[in-house]
Amino acid sequence: MLDPLPETGNPRGLKQAGIATAVIAALIVAGGLFSRASDSARAAHWSQAQSMPTVHLVMPTTAGQSQILTLPGTLEAWNTAHIFARVPGYIHAWYRDIGASVGNGTPLG
Fold it and tell me: N or C: which end of the chain has fewer CB within 10 A?
């Protein structure tokens, strides 16, 4: 026949150690979950507070004198090109000069 297994220590102590370890692990997990939930709520509250636009109202007033804007510098092209109109043919007569005012229906040439 087979010999029964000999007892190797008190299994009750091992059982209590396992339960204590499980309780400590559960407390650590619960603390981590609570910490994350608290941080998440605090971040959501901060984000909501920052999303509100800050507006400063200023009452308009009339200016006493008009202000002249003087800018340093000039505005001109780097290169200039003379552009002339080109049409085929010749002008028979010249009735008005360049820059003269012309009424409606007046022949130009």
Answer: N
